[in-house]
Amino acid sequence: MWQCQGVIRPAAPATAVRQGSLRELNLAVVLGRIAAAPRPPSRAAVAAATGLTRATVSAVVDDLVAGRLVGESEPAPRTGAGRPARGLVLAGDGPAGLGLEINVDYLAACVVDLAGEVRHHTVRRADLRPVSPADALARLVGLAAAARADAERQGLTLAGAALAVPGLVDAAGLVRLAPNLGWRDVPVPDLLSGHPPLVEPVPGIPALVVENEANLAALGELHAGPDGPVSFLHVSGEVGIGAGIVLDGALFRGVRGWSGEIGHIPVRPDGRPCRCGGRGCLERYAGQEAVLAAAGLDRADLPADTAATRLADLALAEHPATRAALAEAGQALGIAVAGVVNLLDLDTVVLGGGYALLTPWLRPPVLAEVSRRVLTAKWSPVTVRSSALGPEAAVVGAAGSVVRRIVADPVGWLNRTG
Amino acid sequence: MWQCQGVIRPAAPATAVRQGSLRELNLAVVLGRIAAAPRPPSRAAVAAATGLTRATVSAVVDDLVAGRLVGESEPAPRTGAGRPARGLVLAGDGPAGLGLEINVDYLAACVVDLAGEVRHHTVRRADLRPVSPADALARLVGLAAAARADAERQGLTLAGAALAVPGLVDAAGLVRLAPNLGWRDVPVPDLLSGHPPLVEPVPGIPALVVENEANLAALGELHAGPDGPVSFLHVSGEVGIGAGIVLDGALFRGVRGWSGEIGHIPVRPDGRPCRCGGRGCLERYAGQEAVLAAAGLDRADLPADTAATRLADLALAEHPATRAALAEAGQALGIAVAGVVNLLDLDTVVLGGGYALLTPWLRPPVLAEVSRRVLTAKWSPVTVRSSALGPEAAVVGAAGSVVRRIVADPVGWLNRTG
DNA sequence: GCTATTTGTTCAGTGGTTGAATTATTTGAC
DNA sequence: GTCAAATAATTCAACCACTGAACAAATAGC
Questions:
Q1: Under a CB-based contact definition with an 8 Å cutoff, are residues B235 and B355 in contact?
Q2: Alpha-carbon gap, residue A206 to B363, rounded angstroms
Q3: Domain ranges of chain B
Q4: Coil, strand, or helix at residue A351?
Q5: Which CATH number applies to B95-218+394-414?
Q6: What is the pLDDT of residues A98-134, one digit of tens each?
Q7: Crossing angle for the helix pair B21-36 and B54-66, nearest 10 degrees?
Q8: Closest nucleotide (CA of B30 to C1')?
Q9: Rounded to a whole number, what is the distance in Å from the CA of B241 to chain A's nearest CA?
Q10: pLDDT tens for residues A342-398?
């Protein structure tokens, strides 16, 4: 056999590999293996899976246990004959991630531990459109402080925080535009600098990452499904429509972090004008306002977060205008998704946010457009399914992004002072 | 400063780092550094850039020189006072990549050395639509043998080959569908197995990779521009329209390698029916047939590879129908590109293949649609430019993909027997 | 209780990097 | 022309982390 098909991936280690990097890399490898294992693995199992020797794995695990990243499970997993294994699990009393979210009609905070368990979750409903950014952030700091106190009561140490915002965020944490909140050029880090820090700083882990909610919601989905797909498109249908793209288990953020603006993909290029300046954007056909209007509902009547529930109720009751509105929205969404799948060759699309509840009615038209328009659909069907977390995906994903970072690169945490 | 914005990138080393991996990784690091340097760097400069010690770099370079991957440049670069540096360059007499291409009306072969120089290039024009896949591949083998002989005459050793095909290729090298060639389910490796091998096998380097031409053309563009962008969309306008997506210097292939089917993104969802089964696909408005028809030309009159030249000539002569046809095609292309940029947040779009010649007329309408429809365009403008390599991008990119792989992971080549 | 079996640890050995000292080679000043 | 300063590259003992084999620990089955 002299032929062989292979992937073209020239991703070399960009950075030099020094003496100590060896241990640093293996800390990440072993920790990642423990995180990915379906059951608590023994040191021997980790050694077999990674190709390291048992001696090395033992040494690495000692470091991880000393750093409160890994613990031994009780009771030990039964294995049959031989000395019983001691199962390794991610520590439930080590570092944790703080997830925060500001949205149109609620604030939320949550804490996720290394193992991915949600250990704290608060949602405070309030219409934030009339509230100034500074005041909104001040309220959020209160939620964060309560979350931190609760986490510490459970023996957890918050190692970093991530804030989900429904808008465009630049690399410095400046919210360039969050139309539904009415924010424009809001410097989140500056506004928070007057408050006590959300978490004690840990080297190598950003104290606060500000990120688009749709991106974090996609990560949340990855986090929720233990053996789900590692590459998918997550579409969040809210007032606007955002998408997060997950490729090989990592969020794809684009050159400046502004990927996923699926709401402004043209689906009717000469159609309805959009406030973005374009015409026929998806948002004008499948966004909350458009669907409510088509269903004959007045959006002033109901808060934004109940719109999806209301639509689902009406659809369930076979309300004709609602059914038609969802069919039209689904078709527009399907046109956009077909383009995305043609471009990126993804095999899974997750409907999240407000769309999660509406999946039963959106899925058929989306699938119809996709199977008609995607060139490769005949060789490999595209799965369209509902989000597991729904509207909570963004906060959970935010907190999860912190712990994912620790698992991927535990050196910062291990080298912390104290 | 307790806040800090960071990228979310949990890409840990999936594989264990063993004792010997240290040297293997540093071979790649040092080689990559030499490849990326604008001028031949000294050992000391490589040490400074990578963080390794001079001692280590010297040892690593010795291995690379012994393996014919690196040489010392003559004359030595002048540096000022002190012992003169010995400049390190990628070897011009070591391994090389063989690039092959089958297209509608030509076969091509080329050889690219480690430094990226094209050392051999042949194009044989012939209408391949009436030729059976087996015969076409047999002719290609002839071209490849000539290329190999020429390469060896120059002291080069072919380490691997890549074949560009205008169609969908699966992981086994099976061409599922190449509509313009009339190919369907053509098992390229099987058909080649009766011929002598294209290259002597090298461990770790696939003897033959079969890949979509648009993907390889995108890589070729990356290869041509020394300090161009590392993330961009490369659109190849031929009979069909394909795109290659390069992210951080690596080709994004999608889950099954079928990414980039931009030709079937819906731009007029209820518009002209497409042979893919959909309606209003970009290809029906900006593909070669559509543009020729709109310009009032009969495509039977001229071979496919001269269509772009002909259109450019007419446009230059201010032929009204041609101008209008290109404006319409550019608008359709702009609608599709706007969707892509909204989704992926890319800042550069390269017009390649037949579009390269037509850029002066396509660029304005594309830019107009993009700036109108891309949400983030006001903060960071999108560059639309012409391909540097034009129609040769795919073969060059194919050959370049082989050498890129060697530079990224030189271990296979170094461990070869002989 | 004995054996087979598997887990986890210990320890000398080794590969590869480190850092300082050394050699090599040039420029520029006196 | 000679010497000092500067930079490049090599040499070598030390050290760090992984390796492999031997060994101790703990259990199931007979």
A1: yes
A2: 41
A3: 21-73, 95-218+394-414, 226-387
A4: strand
A5: 3.30.420.40
A6: 999 999 889 999 999 999 999 999 999 999 999 999 9
A7: 90
A8: C17
A9: 12
A10: 999 999 999 999 999 999 999 999 999 999 999 999 888 999 999 999 889 999 999
Beta B168-169 vs B95-102: how paired, if at all?
unpaired
Q: Which amino acid is at B330?
A: G
Q: What's the CA gap between A42 and A377, in Å, rounded?
A: 42
pLDDT in tens, B7-42: 344 445 567 778 778 899 999 999 999 999 988 999
**Given the DSSP bridges, would you call strands A70-72 and A88-90 parallel, antiparallel or unpaired?**
antiparallel
Where b means 16+ CB within 10 Å and e means fewer, B67-81 reads bbbbbbeeeeeeeee
List the strands of the sheet with A232-237, edge to edge. Answer: A250-252, A241-247, A232-237, A348-353, A383-386
B184 has which bridge partners?
B177
Q: What is the pLDDT of residues A29-39, one digit of tens each?
A: 999 999 999 89
Interface size, chain A vs chain B, as Cβ–Cβ contacts under 8 Å: 295
Predicted local confidence at residue A16, as pLDDT: 73
Q: Do B266 and A265 touch (CB under 8 A)?
A: no
Partner-chain residue, chosen from B17, B22, B375, that has the shortest CB–CB distance to A261: B375
Write the single-letter amino acid at A246. V
Collapse the DSSP code of B115 into the 3-class scheme (helix H, G, I; strand E, B; otherwise coil) and give the result.
coil
Cα A81 to the chain's mean position, in Å? 42
Protein CA B54 to sugar C1' C22 (Å): 14
Chain A residues touching B47 at Cβ < 8 A: none
Is B179 touching A (CB cutoff 8 A)? Answer: no
A24 CA → C9 C1’, Å: 22
Q: What is the dihedral of CA A282, A283, A289, A295, to 10 degrees?
A: 10
A95-218+394-414 shares its CATH topology with A226-387: yes
* A-chain residues near B408 (CB < 8 A): 9-12
How many residues in chain A? 418
In DSSP terms, which residues pair with B79 in a beta bridge? none
CATH says A226-387 is which class? alpha beta
Q: Which of B181, B95, B139 is nearest to B399 (CA)?
A: B95
Nearest CA to B274 out of A270, A337, A262, A342 is that of A342
* Contacts of the segment A316-319: beta carbons below 8 A, 24+ positions apart: A319/A295
